Automatic annotation (TrEMBL):
PROSITE patterns: ABC_TRANSPORTER_1, ABC_TRANSPORTER_2. Coiled coil: none annotated. Pfam families: ABC_tran. GO terms for molecular function: ATP binding. Belongs to the ABC transporter superfamily. Transmembrane segments: none annotated. Keywords: ATP-binding, Nucleotide-binding, Transport. This is ABC transporter ATP-binding protein. CDD domains: ABC_Metallic_Cations (cd03235).
């Protein structure tokens, strides 16, 4: 498989604060990459780099053999559903069609019949077509997450980025979303930020552990577990200790 995301010796600063330091990472076509790390560790900054919303002042980054900004039309992005305004008076169909805008904002812009047909096909694939006329505030957390994924998929992206897509979901809804992503991964590359340490290794092909620096990048193994002191002392990395204990210590039980 060819590499479609290449990050070489990248460092990112917000004024004098270092968000990422000397990151080297390659993501292959149709890889399912999970990014793990503590809050404030640079995970979201890494997504911004790939999307071209943040420039790397140090190092180089290429996406689909191009500059991130120029490759953005081939990248689907799914934000945290908790940051989506559920009170906004818009229905499911309109949210999905928003993915067709692709940065083209105009008061006279109209969606074509082809746009709607393609949106309907994506909604059917994700099992939300029956909800197309429902106001988004009436959706469950899992349903809303599928709507946001559909919005990202309607442009037929080559890469799908997701920022904690299961953060506010119950256990069954989480599994439903991960099973959906595994199915989608047959055709597109998936990169997601997650706190679901206990289950992500059953779905991802590779895992990145990041806390300003990239401490681990390797194959995901079923039941992979990380030392609770890992991010404080990378030399203490161990594959097989108590994951639940690690989660409770680092993330406060998230």
């Amino acid at each position: 498989m060819k590499d479609i995301i290449e990050i070489s010796e990248v460092s990112v600063y917000y004024d004098k604060f270092c968000a990422l330091n000397n990151i080297n990472l390659k993501v292959s076509e149709k890889e399912f990459l999970a990014i793990l790390g503590p809050n404030g560790g640079g995970k979201s900054t890494l997504l911004k780099l790939i999307l071209g919303f943040k420039d790397a002042k140090v190092g180089k980054i290429k996406v689909l053999n191009d500059k991130p900004k120029d490759a953005r039309k081939s990248i689907g992005y799914v934000p945290q559903s908790s940051k989506f305004d559920k009170e906004f008076p818009i229905n499911v169909e309109d949210v999905v069609l928003m993915g067709k805008l692709n940065n083209k904002v105009s008061p006279f812009l109209k969606f074509t019949n082809k746009d709607r047909e393609e949106a309907y096909e994506v909604m059917k694939k994700l099992g939300i077509y029956r909800l197309k006329d429902r106001q988004i505030g009436q959706l469950s957390g899992g349903q809303l997450q599928r709507v946001l994924i559909a919005r990202a998929l309607v442009l037929q992206p080559k890469i799908l980025l997701l920022d904690e897509p299961t953060a506010s979901l119950d256990a069954q809804a989480k599994l439903d979303i991960y099973n959906l992503l595994r199915e989608l991964n047959q055709n597109i590359t998936i990169v997601l930020v997650t706190h679901d340490i206990e289950i992500i290794s059953n779905y991802a092909t590779n895992i990145v552990c990041i806390n300003k620096e990239l401490y681990y990048y390797g194959k995901a193994k079923k039941g992979i577990e990380i030392n609770m002191n890992f991010f404080q002392n990378p030399t203490n990395f161990i594959d097989h200790i108590n994951t639940e204990q690690y989660s409770n210590t680092l993330y406060g039980g998230i």
